[in-house]
Amino acid sequence: MNYPLRNEIVDDLLKTHQFKGMTYEQVIDTLGGPQNRDTLQLSYQIIDNSSEYNRKKPIHKKNLILYFNKDSVVVKAEIYDHTNKKK
């Protein structure tokens, strides 16, 4: 799946929404369903070009990750940003 606008709005989203302290249900109501979920985290894909076949271009992955405590309340929100670009 492709989400072309997410990279443009993620910084503003983090500035305007205080995710820390939100419940699981509030997050889902605000952002919709995540692309990946684990027991204590949700991950929303921002960029993932790893399925593109042009390998001359470095792979770039960027996700918004929300971490929850055992009571399903957000304790941390962060951006995971990775590229395999050679330095």
- Assign the structural class, choosing from mainly alpha, mainly beta, alpha/beta, alpha+beta, or little secondary structure: alpha+beta
Beta strands, count: 4
- For the biggest β-sheet, the strand order reads 1-2-3-4
Which segments are poorly predicted (pLDDT under 50) over 5 or more consecutive residues?
Answer: none
> If you compute it from the alpha carbons, what radius of gyration comes out, rounded to the nearest whole angstrom?
14 Å
Order of helices and strands: HHEEEE
> Approximately how much helix is present in the residues?
10-25%
Instruction: Specify the biggest β-sheet.
Output: 4 strands, antiparallel
Question: What form results from the Cα inertia axes?
Answer: elongated
Kindly state the mean pLDDT as a whole number?
87
Distance between the termini: 29 Å
Oligomer: single chain
Summed up, the helix count is 2
| Content of β-strand | 25-35%
